[in-house]
Amino acid sequence: MHVLLLGGHGKVALYLTPLLLNRSWSVTSIVRNPDHESEILDLGKGRKGKLSVLISSLESVKSATDAKKILDATKPDYVVWSAGAGGKGGPARTIAIDQEAAKHFIEASFAYPSVSKFLMVSWLGSRRKQPSWMTDDAWASVMVAKNEILPTYAAAKLEADEYMTALAAKRKQEDPRPFQAIDLRPGGLKDDPATRKVELGITGQAKGTVTREDVAIVADQLLARADVEGWIDLVNGNVDVEEAVEKVAAEKIDAAAEEDVDEMVKRFFP
């Protein structure tokens, strides 16, 4: 398999790259800064798969046509969005990358003949209403993050998440070809070493945290399966990663279960 990794110099992507290569998959890592190319290529040394770097700014992706040009140049089977403005450049840049460029890549990828999976790295609080499994205290912390700490980022991610969810639902109705739209939604990110112990799928731990390395491990395992899709919340917990992923797959767990997907479809595709 060939994976297009958008945001290849991000910390999660740097952990994810060697895991994908160890599967004998090929990876094309998209980065904006050419100074990062050698660092990324070093991740491929001694791995089974082939690694390449494409220098391209996601900020310049202004349409699905622009995104398709990158897909045409790389011909991926799977697309991973692990990119973001990272709070740099102000609200306009956050909207341009985390919302608009993400939506353009979602649209282009869903329509691209070779692509059968799209994995978005989002965040745990990206939802409109409090789910039944989340405590009032946990939801209050989500609202603080959304309204006070990172309001532009939260709005941008929610727009991209809901667009992907709506397009996935629409595609299921119109296209018989299998397609996995996976929205991986970690809690607060830490730089500690991986624990390989998680709470995955649906979690009330909105204040929970997770290591970036564990996010990459889970993403790798989700991409390797043909039976997972939807919103998958993630924090560190007490369950082995392999067991947690198996449970999500076996029970078809989707943290968007209480979201109004029909309304999303109507909003984006009236």
Automatic annotation (TrEMBL):
Gene3D superfamilies: NAD(P)-binding Rossmann-like Domain (3.40.50.720). Residues 7-224 form the NAD(P)-binding domain. It holds the Pfam family NAD_binding_10. PANTHER family: FLAVIN REDUCTASE-RELATED, UPF0659 PROTEIN YMR090W. Belongs to the avfA family. This is NAD(P)-binding domain-containing protein. It comes from Penicillium frequentans. The lineage of its organism: Eukaryota, Fungi, Dikarya, Ascomycota, Pezizomycotina.
